[in-house]
Structure formats: C-alpha cells, structure tokens
Amino acid sequence: MVDLIKTAIPLGFFLSFMLGPVFFMLLETSATKGVRAAISFDIGVLISDVVFITLAYYSSYQLLESLSNSPILYLFGGAGMVIYGVILSIKKVEKKDIPMQELGINSNYFGLFLKGFLLNIINVGVLVFWVGTVIVVGPRFDGSIENFVVFFATMLGVYLITDLIKIIAAKQLQTKLTPLRIIWVTKILGYLLVICGIVLIVKGMLPGDQLNPAYMIEK
C-alpha cells in the first residue's frame, strides 16, 4: 500500500498542472472572484473526477471500447467547450460593470461548483485519463477495493492541496487586475476554451484506434 501511495502522490501533482480549460478557469476564478469562489469551482471539478473514477473502475474495459468506437462523445464535449468559449470571448462587458472593490463579493458559490462540475464532465479527455490510469495501475490493486480507494484518495488529495496553493497564489494577482485586464483575461480564457474544444473535435474525427486510451498512453 505504501508503494501505491508513493505512486499516487506525483500523479496527483501532475494532474493539478495538466493544462486545460479547468486549469485556466480555476486561476481566473481565484484572481477575479476570490479564494472561496475558486474552491467552490474546484470542488465541482473534484466531484466530477470521482464520478469518472467510479465509472472507470466498474467498466474500464467497456468504456475503453466505447470511447474508441464512439467519437460522438468527443464531438459533443468539444462542441460544448467551443460554444462556451465563444460566449466568453464575445461577451461585452463594460469597465464600469466590474468595480474592483466588489471582487469576490456576492459570488454564486453553487453556480461556480456547477460550472466546475460541468466543465470537467464534458471534457472526454479527462475520462480517457482516468480510464487509462485505472487500466495501467489496476493490476497493482490486487483486486482490493481498499487499495483502490487509498490510491485515488491520495491522488485526489494531493491534487486538491496543490490546487489550493495555486488558488492562493493566483489570488495575489487581484490587486493588479484592473477592470480592463479582467475583460482581457476573460476573453483569453474564452479563446483557450475554443482551442481545447477544437482539439477534442479533431480527436473525435480521428480513426477509431487512435481514440483508444491505451493507444494514447503508448504515444
């Protein structure tokens, strides 16, 4: 079990720094809305990861086959990201609508939790990551549910702690965020979401064997 924990720690740290829509949205939320808002968003992401891990554990090989034969999942998730990214990038915000003294106040924490959950859940690449992790590390569990829980609890715990450090660090940027900079940060985030969505759509158009999580891990 100690070996499993040693393996889970670097994986959790690596997961926290995987560049993607959640990574950038978390930093933006912390910088513009405050620590509690970012934590609400991150908990939503974490819960969606738990859902993915559970699915991967109970049906990893079935999901492996489904993902390789159902590119529609990538197309749907990618389209969702593109649409949300476009909305962010073209949304008109007047500078007077973002008074700096109101940053972090009256945040809709449940809405941010839901945003984190949904943004992560539509990213099929995250599901691929968890399926691949279960398939690769699974044999080391020796069929023990306790080993499985300890491994992923450690991994997610390290992920959460690392995210908290990122959130606190990003919060320090708040004093440097003028209203105009906030507008540009939001637009840039929208562009990044569009790019991530396009990447998912392109993956959905690849031949079936290249969508296989095992194929991606080998690459």
Give me the secondary-structure topology.
Blueprint: H1 2-16, H2 21-33, H3 35-69, H4 72-90, H5 109-121, H6 124-137, H7 145-171, H8 179-204, H9 213-218
Textual characterization of the structure:
The structure is a single chain. By secondary structure, the protein is mostly helical. The chain has one domain (2-13, 31-218). Helix content is 77%, strand content 0%. The protein has helices at 2-16, 21-33, 35-69, 72-90, 109-121, 124-137, 145-171, 179-204, 213-218. Helix 2 (21-33) crosses helix 7, helix 2 (21-33) runs antiparallel to helix 8 (179-204) and helix 3 packs across helix 7 (145-171). The radius of gyration is 18 Å and the shape is globular.
Compact overview of the structure:
The protein has 219 residues and is mainly alpha-helical. The chain contains nine helices and no strands. It has one domain (2-13, 31-218).
Provide the succession of SSEs.
HHHHHHHHH
Number of domains: 1
Query: Main β-sheet, in a few words?
Result: none
Q: Globular, elongated, flat, extended or rod-shaped: what is the shape?
A: globular
Distance between the termini: 29 Å
Strand content: under 5%
Helix content: over 70%
User: Over all CA atoms, what is the radius of gyration?
Assistant: 18 Å
Overall residue-averaged pLDDT value: 75
Low-confidence stretches: 94-106, 209-219
Strand segment count: 0
Number of helices: 9
Label the structural class: mainly alpha
